Amino acid sequence: MRRTKAFVLVHSAYELGYTPRMRVMGIDCGTEFTGFGIAEQSDRDHLHYVVAGVITLSKKDPMPRRLAHIFATLRAVIDEHKPHIIAIEEVFYSVNPKSALKLGQVRGVAMLASAYCGLPMAEYSPLAIKSSVVGYGHAEKHQVQHMVMRLLRLEEVPASPDAADALAIAICHLHTSQTLARQAAGNR
Questions:
Q1: Annotated catalytic residue 43
Q2: Confidence band (pLDDT; 50, 70, 90) for 80?
Q3: From the candidates 28, 40, 123, 165, which is the catalytic residue?
Q4: Of 52, 63, 76, 169, which has the maximum CB count within 10 A?
Q5: Any residues with CB less than 8 A from the CB of 17 and at least 6 apart, and which?
Q6: CA dihedral over 58, 59, 60, 64, signed as positive or negative
Q7: Which residues contact 4 (CB under 8 A, 6 or more apart)?
Q8: Is 28 a catalytic residue?
């Protein structure tokens, strides 16, 4: 197994689910707002916006109910838009252990939705996502939103930063898997 900054636990572009026309669902996990976004790469390497949104969770609801809502919504989006692969952000280390644990639960539900629907999954570090989309690993949120808008040729910045982050995760996977496929083709 190979481990790089861009992705983990992946052997090849094939395992990343690369196809000449690929649809990727990015999920930006959060305990109050979980963003999702689907982008597609055409066979001519053009990126296309498919859908994006936010699952809003009530702090009043117990955590099991919030997690069930995330799972049901992600499954519905997957069923409707049929992505080929799911991409999420790797765990980052938080100062607050309780917050990190809750975020881990949301990530687990995203992973479960991916596995339940029979889809492969890839994980990317925040640095890799920002580098792939903006070209700078320490980019600000507004820079990521602006580049998502430009790369997907949207008329305006996505309304939700969580949806924009999810689209950025999807774009990162598209860029990474395409690069790996080109490298693999060059090594033959």
A1: no
A2: very high
A3: 28
A4: 169
A5: 84, 85, 120, 122, 177
A6: positive
A7: none
A8: yes
